[in-house]
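Recall the central idea of this unit: under ordinary conditions, the amino acid sequence of a chain determines the structure it adopts. In this exercise we apply that idea directly, starting from the sequence alone.
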Amino acid sequence: MVIVKMSGGLGNQMFQYALYRKMQQAGKDVKLDLSAFQDKNAFRKFSLNIFPIDYQTADLAECRKLGECSYRPVDKLRKKMFGLKKSYYQEDLDKGYQPEILEMDSVYLDGYWQCERYFQDIREKILEDYTFPKKISTGSSRLQERIENTESVSIHIRRGDYLDAANYKIYGNICTVEYYQNAISRMCKLCESPEFYLFSNDPEWAKKIFGDTEGITIVEEDKERPDYEDMFLMSRCKHNIIANSSFSWWAAWLNQNENKRVIAPVKWFNNHFATDVICDDWIRIDGNHKGA
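Accordingly, the structure predicted from this sequence is:
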């Protein structure tokens, strides 16, 4: 049996499920561990039920046999006293893509697995699995019509939790204002009459920086619009400028425009070297110069 730990927000959960799906397609006995969301202090909730997917979940006994169910005090104590189990495999973010995990059995996989190479060969199945709900909010429906009838380019700016001191050390100062300015300039050269739609969890900040820039629509907050609709709308744009965020990564990956251009930062983390998360055919832009 293989158990894939589920954790993080929507984008990270989508990576974890995609790995689960790949292993399932390979004929493995694989299950998801949802125990991280059972902790009463859990910051995140399981978010994949918006999609028409089926999955098997591991029970507590199965998780404790192979992995580290650290949400219970007794499990935390056992881990402290005896260390990690041999069947427990934690992703090495400095290695990037780790294909050896696809051959493992009797293992508990703990990581985010942010690389399309894990599931690129089953792209059509993942696209089918990640079908968004047909019913969307009124505001999103209007915006979708505009997006689909223009040479639309999504821009995603993530602030909020990325400004926390601990997160800033990992993710901060990568997608700078200069990064977005360079990306917009590059996209204007690549596309004819592009119209930009800026999505952010801090739209007021975005207005201060880009509010007077011609051709940019800053998508307003809407209490009726669930978060996943932002991902859906970005995926309907013709092209994408993403942040170092799994949320906009998936919006770009789910974009089925055959002629799409995707611009991403040259690196994803400040504290890890691997950049396998960025797809090979995406354009990489530095925050300080024009990039590759």
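The beta strands are 2-5, 30-33, 88-90, 107-110, 152-157, 195-200, 216-218, 239-241, 262-265, 283-285.
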